[in-house]
Amino acid sequence: MIRTRRSFQIKIQNMGCNSCSTGKDGQPKGCRNNGTCGTDGCNKLTVFDWLSNMSLPNGEKPFEFVEVRFKNSRKEFFRNTENLGLSIGDIVATQAQSGHDIGMITLTGELVRVQMKKKKVDHSSGDILKLYRKASQKDIDIWQKARNREEEIKKRSREIAIILKLQMKISDVEFQGDASKATFYYTAEERVDFRQLIKDMAKAFGIRIEMRQIGYRQEAQRLGGIGSCGRELCCSTWLTDFRSVSTSAARYQQLSLNPQKLAGQCGKLKCCLNYELDLYLEALKDFPPQDTKLFTEKGMAFCQKSDIFKATFWFSYKDEPANWHVLSKEQVIEIVAKNRKKEKIASLEEYAADNIVEDKVVFENVVGQDSLTRFDKPKGRNNRNKNKKRRNNRKRRQKNA
After folding, report:
1. Is the pLDDT reported for residue 160 higher than 80?
2. What's the chain's average pLDDT?
3. What percentage of the chain exceeds 70 in pLDDT?
4. pLDDT band at 5 (very low <50, low <70, confident <90, very high)
5. Among 40, 106, 313, 368, who pairs with 69 as Cys (CB 3.0-4.6 Å)?
6. Contact by Cβ (8 Å): 349, 301
7. pLDDT in tens, 246-284
């Protein structure tokens, strides 16, 4: 048992990087890199390099731009002017507005050209920053020390904002790689005057401060989390752009307009409401409207419910709202066409009778197994009477004996 547990720990250590592996006595170290581990296993917004095993044609130079990822989901493109041999997972020092920053290579080669075109970044522009070198051990140590200070500084900055009575929420802090500058990401409903806040934080922390306002969806993207579906948030794992989501998307998919169920962790409507919307809109093109009225000789009928996948409708008369009749999509279109010609059908029952389907037995107990709910059924009076007769017969036999 001890040997098996030990070998299992060794396997875990070989699978993950140093920050994700198991420590002493089987205690997990935990990944403090927030998804920037060298194995790229817990990375966010990764792009699979399906061209990595393919060599370039003769005389063709590799694309000189690379994609570098920083804390959480922030990615930028840099020019590899030194023609360094880089691969995914390398820690590099990049140019910043002042000083340098430390990030990890997430994409190289021709796929960077595709990503730049997708994000509308002109690679011929001279505004793209340069990539200096591969990060040395000294650069990585300074970067790690700065990253370890972020939680403490975030907590202290929130306390300063509360003392100044500012209506804002500081959600994340990101240090620059050389530890000379920190970017504070915050959310706020209205415009905030944070000039005094910057002075107090610069005095308390001894670094240059940059304030950057983000939306609630961008905040959820940076922080990540688990959604109501049980999976990681789409915005923090693979979703690269935010499309507007309206309540009409829920109406088309016949979802209950419950804000608690339709809202995500950001407080806005879930992005996944748009995933199947196009399919529903395509199916609803030849569907009669939900407010369709059918005129019969028995009276007018209203649509109570519809099923897009089964292409069926449930109608009821105005005087009998509790009695529903099942009609197919083709039958509803036929009745509406007759109503437009000022013709009334006899009743809905004539059409609904054609849609009655007998329940088919899917499973039959041919082997003779006992039912799992046999003990749940209460004993009837017949069994009690039989048991009573048996007791009486037994007593009579004993007396006669």
Report:
1. yes
2. 81
3. 81
4. very low
5. 106
6. no
7. 888 998 888 888 888 899 988 899 999 999 999 888 888
Q: Are 187 and 168 in contact (CB under 8 A)?
A: yes
In the CATH scheme, what is the homologous superfamily, with its name and number, of domain 141-219? K homology (KH) domain (3.30.300.20)
C-alpha span between 133 and 84 (Å, rounded): 8
Phi, psi of 95 (to 5 degrees): -75, 140
Q: Tokens at residue 384, please?
A: 């009690």
Structure tokens at 333: 């279109």
Q: Residue with structure tokens 């959820």?
A: 220
Beta strands of 139-225 (E only): which ranges?
Answer: 169-175, 181-187, 208-213
Do residues 357 and 312 lie in contact, with contact meaning Cβ atoms separated by under 8 Å? no
Contacts of 72 (CB under 8 A, 6+ apart): 34, 35, 44, 172, 174, 221, 222, 223, 224, 236
Max alpha carbon distance in the chain (Å)?
A: 116
399: which 2 tokens? 């007396």
Tokens 């030990």 — which residue?
Answer: 6
- Angle 137-163/195-205 helices, nearest 10 degrees? 130
Token duo for residue 345: 């059908």
Exposure string over 253-268, b if 16+ CB within 10 A, otherwise e: eeeeeeeeebebbbeb
- The gap between the terminal CA atoms of the chain, to the nearest Å, is 66
Strands 65-69 and 100-107: antiparallel
Q: pLDDT per residue over 227-245, tens digit each?
A: 888 888 988 888 888 888 9
The position carrying tokens 């998919």 is 253
